[in-house]
Amino acid sequence: MINNMKQSAGDNSENIHSGRDTSITNITNVINEVIDYDKLTTSVVEIVIDAFPVLRDVAFATGRIFMEDTAKFLIDEIKKLQEDVGHLKSKLSEPDIQFSINELLYISAKKGQKIDRDVLVSLIVKKLESGVSDEQDFLLDEAISISSKLTRQQIEFLGFIFYVKNITCNYTTNSLFGNCLEIINPANMNLKENHDSFILKNSFVKKSDVYEAYMKIYTSDLELLFEDIKLVSEINLNYLSLKNCIGNLMFGSQGIEYIVSKRTGSKEEDFSKKFKFLQMKLKKYGTENSSNINLTEIGNLIAVAYLNGKGMNIPIMN
């Protein structure tokens, strides 16, 4: 980023920290007290055996390895939470949470590397945080259920679309009330401008600086996030629509070519030359006409959980 430019995802994307100092030791004790993982993993193994009586010994052993690795990863992620020990103990004791954990371990044993474990764990851990409303909790439950039925590539695609359409630049401005962040999105027709600057509520910023920041987002930053994805094939958009990850395909919106071109100050006809990696990904996904791809609230939750697993720091919920 340049100067005081920052990336964000939406209007209310400030990082939120609890501020409470909870020791790893206390959290570990709470987890061990509430959840007997030896008993839990054994019960899940028994479920797998009952469901697949002819399961070969090798396949069974492999499933158990995946399950135990997932359990360890979940515990490690819970330890990172900055939450009150009493709150964590209460949440972990809820049947809702224990059911989600049970399902996570079961699907890990059953599907192994076919699922995106990091996304599922991230969504479950979010349910443990304080301040999650009942409505948000239900949305998280739905996102957990749906993401367990998506392939890694489908989840990666949701993350890709969210990144390209929703990641924007914030600019820090000074006012009588202190510093504040303002989103700068040249694809927004309501953004005011003059000859060489975009006009914000409390300041203005040079267009060249904004274009440079977005150019980085759509070239080097994009490649860094997604270059390790080697196997890319055409996405079944109808399936993602049925799973409530993307909206009605009959309704259009701003396409990716338009959004990227406006944000970088480029011409749409130069899109394929200036953004070769982005164009290649769209072509392989079979989504070059991207104006009808809009993520739902569930799709956004899964996408953000995926991107955070790639090193970004976007609040799953505001």
Point out poorly predicted stretches. Answer: 11-23
Overall 3D geometry? globular
If strands are numbered along the chain, what order do they take across the biggest sheet?
A: 1-2-3
- Based on secondary structure, the structural category is mainly alpha
Helix and strand string, N-terminal first?
EHHHHHHHHEEEEEHHHHHHH
Q: How many distinct helices?
A: 15
- Report the span from N to C terminus: 23 Å
**Average of pLDDT:** 82
Which radius of gyration do the C-alpha atoms yield? 22 Å
Q: What's the helical proportion of residues?
A: 55-70%
In total, the number of strands is: 6
Descriptive notes:
The protein has 318 residues and is mainly alpha-helical. Helices cover 56% and strands 9% of the residues. Helix 2 (37-51) runs antiparallel to helix 3, helix 7 (134-147) packs across helix 15 (297-309) and helix 8 (152-166) packs across helix 15 (297-309). The radius of gyration is 22 Å and the shape is globular.
